[in-house]
């Protein structure tokens, strides 16, 4: 591996990986024992995040936000909506947040470049609780751009991106989200690289880059990682196993993780986060969701009723 690690504002981030692993930031957000809304494109917008929190989610992730887009944005306080908006040079709101979610919000970055990732992270750091790097998206637009799951086979770049963020964001917790690799051994090897960069937590989707929701989630891979990891591991990919709130506990147990990240099950009905035997009726969920969309001027193209 290249010995020239990314520099931060105070100088080189070089050093032994074992020593660096001990330099994790003091966390203001805890990733252990949590139920989490997953990052979902055009779904994990402000209304969906707030509704999930109100229904009982502990932490919410933004949809993937590409570093190129963020670094072209200006941060604008919106007194009418009570939000902070990141607006690009075409007057498009790329990211909107508010005080209600700030201490429980993780912004997910799409990136393939350490310095560009750092520029984007520093821009938004004051408005989020943590920053996540997307290393699991299997969509073609991510892979062609060298982002998402394209990073899974590039451990040097994975390390450089994460280490640059850990060292350069003033103690802001940094996390990563990955998919499993074809073998447990390959996956464990990558996890060790990620841990050595000093991240605070790791979310793992139990399918490979080529697998789709119809394929079984490799819960035994996640369990093997959770047994050996030195940081909180967040299990993801189990929506087919989660129909009611009680199923979250079963998925947690089957993966050996203390935290669970939910995507499609929450997309179908985000009252899945409520600690009750049955989901809320969809008309009630839709009503509350649309009220938030109106309150926060959510663009119609990002307003989904599933």
Short account of what is shown:
This is tRNA-dihydrouridine synthase. This protein has 11 helices and 13 strands.
How would you summarize the topology of this molecule?
Blueprint: E1 7-8, E2 11-12, H1 17-21, E3 35-37, H2 46-55, E4 59-66, H3 67-70, E5 74-78, E6 83-87, E7 93-98, E8 105-110, H4 114-124, E9 130-135, H5 140-144, H6 155-168, E10 174-179, H7 184-196, E11 201-205, H8 219-228, E12 233-236, H9 245-255, E13 259-262, H10 264-268, H11 282-295
Parallel strand pairs: 3-4, 3-13, 4-8, 8-9, 9-10, 10-11, 11-12, 12-13
Antiparallel strand pairs: 1-2, 5-6, 6-7
Helix pairs in contact: 2-11, 4-6, 6-7
Shape: globular
| Secondary structure tally: strands | 13
If you average the pLDDT, what whole number results? 91
In CATH terms, what is the fold-level topology?
A: TIM Barrel
What percent of residues adopt helix (DSSP H or I)? 25-40%
The SSE order reads EEHEHEHEEEEHEHHEHEHEHEHH
Order of the strands making up the biggest sheet: 3-4-8-9-10-11-12-13
Class by SSE composition: alpha/beta
EC number: 1.3.1.-
Protein name: tRNA-dihydrouridine synthase
Function: Catalyzes the synthesis of dihydrouridine, a modified base found in the D-loop of most tRNAs.
Enzyme class: oxidoreductase
């Amino acid at each position: 591996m290249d010995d020239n690690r990314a520099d931060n504002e105070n100088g080189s981030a070089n050093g032994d990986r074992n020593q660096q692993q001990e330099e994790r930031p003091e966390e203001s957000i805890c990733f252990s024992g949590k139920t989490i809304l997953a990052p979902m494109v055009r779904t994990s917008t402000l209304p969906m995040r707030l509704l999930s929190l109100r229904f009982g989610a502990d932490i919410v992730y933004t949809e993937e936000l590409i570093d190129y887009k963020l670094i072209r944005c200006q941060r604008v306080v919106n007194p009418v909506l009570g939000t902070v908006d990141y607006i690009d040079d075409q007057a498009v709101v790329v990211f909107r947040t508010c005080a209600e979610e700030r201490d429980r919000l993780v912004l997910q970055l799409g990136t393939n470049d350490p310095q560009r990732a750092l520029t984007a992270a520093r821009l938004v750091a004051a408005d989020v609780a943590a920053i996540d790097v997307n290393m699991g998206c299997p969509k073609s637009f991510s892979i062609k751009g060298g982002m998402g799951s394209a990073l899974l086979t590039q451990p040097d770049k994975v390390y450089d991106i994460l280490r640059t963020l850990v060292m350069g964001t003033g103690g802001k917790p940094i996390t990563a989200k990955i998919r499993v690799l074809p073998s447990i051994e390959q996956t464990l090897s990558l996890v060790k690289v990620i841990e050595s960069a000093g991240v605070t937590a790791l979310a793992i989707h139990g399918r490979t880059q080529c697998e789709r929701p119809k394929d079984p989630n490799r819960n035994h891979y996640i369990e093997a990682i959770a047994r050996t990891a030195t940081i909180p591991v967040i299990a993801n990919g189990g929506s087919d196993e989660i129909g009611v709130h009680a199923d979250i506990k079963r998925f947690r147990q089957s993966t050996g993780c203390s935290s669970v990240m939910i995507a499609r099950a929450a997309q179908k009905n985000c009252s899945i986060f409520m600690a009750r035997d049955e989901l809320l009726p969809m008309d009630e969920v839709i009503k509350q969701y649309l009220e938030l969309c109106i309150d926060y001027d959510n663009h119609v193209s990002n307003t989904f009723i599933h």
